[in-house]
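seq:
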Amino acid sequence: MSSNKRLVEEVFSKIPSVDTSLVNEMIEKELKNLNKKIIVLDDDPTGVQTVHGISVYTDWSLDSIEKGFQEDNSMFFILTNSRGFTAEETTKAHQEIAANIVEAAKRNNREFTIISRGDSTLRGHYPLETQVLKETVEASSDNRFDGEVILPFFKEGGRFTIDNIHYVQYDEYLVPAGETEFAKDRTFGYTKSHLGEWAEEKSNGEYKAENMTYISLESLRALDIETIEQQLLNVGDFNKVIVNAVDYADVKIFTIALIRAMNKGKNFMFRSAAALTKVIGGVSDKNLLTREEIMSEDTNHGGLVIIGSHVKKTTEQFEELKKLDTVEFIEFNVHLVLEPEKFEKELARVVETTNKLIIQGKNVAVYTRRERLDLGEDKKEEELMLSVKISDAVTSIVKRLEVRPSFIIAKGGITSSDVGTNGLEVKRATVAGQIRPGIPVWTTGSESKFPGISYVIFPGNVGTKTDLREVVEMLSKK
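struct:
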């Protein structure tokens, strides 16, 4: 680890405290003045990891978006899964989404705000997605965007922004995001941890760090809402607003100033992690889900765990899961993807074994071979194409299930998206809540392959070492 890492305790002890009950009172009042439909575009299904009682639509047809506009809730999510897309695919998707949002807003005579929910460790198609949304909305309506708010804070995952630097917590240390494994991502890598410099790096210098607006923890903690509002009123030319935050209180104080600025005519695009959506959507705190709330009908069948993610945290959690003797493990050799015939046979074997074991009441964990498929440095697009083939195969395991498992857990963002959308054929799900901090549970809609089943979406890079094992234990108690 780097020399720039800092002790959590030391850093947090220097941050002034704030009266949270006063802040809660203020935000509650302020949210009543926000008369906009909030549409969250989720680049993988882990973005609902802070909310409950909220709908998630898995397509962006005009019909689905209109349904979202007609709900009583002020906020709904659209799952784009764009982190698994090529740049070209995500451009096309975001043009369609923006055009349909503008049309639905006109038909329902509602103003709207779009939040592009991205990964809290800064991976994803940025600035491409928000740029495309901005251009498309502006081309097809009178809306103009003054700036873009960047807010990757996500407490449940230990992601904090302090002195404009984004940190990832590892045990008792905070490590600058640019020095973590996430920054070395093959598709979405970066080098900067200072969010202004990161946005400059990502925009290839189009936006300069020194021209950006920085909302400091000092002014947030001093409840200096007038100053923050003034900072926001001064933003123009789609410049970036970097928000520091170490707690939900910081996001709430910022949102109070934001709503005031918006009500004075300012319009922002948002690239944020999951914390902002909870605050601006007015979603209350909710206890973690109990087994009773999740297991609506007890069958004698086993549950299914699908493990696709390859990040270090997933591998550690998987090793812990192996300690359970109540789980049967099936390795899916996805490297056979290079030999289509063998790959098809391997998939058939996995499906058949999974069905057989679930009927016998056994929990099954299907995991993709742990070594990465590496075709070499200059083959990134080919690797992405193969990973899509692999993902389709993993998804088809759920599609080809002949029995209803007692629960389904998918580990990894893109994996869980594909399993939900293609495997379970969900069009609209309701977020039941969280089974562990940052680990959401969907209740599937009536149209899905297994209506009303609890589907646990377990992000690749979230949770403690023992969380996966404990969640499986909790759900499989007979």
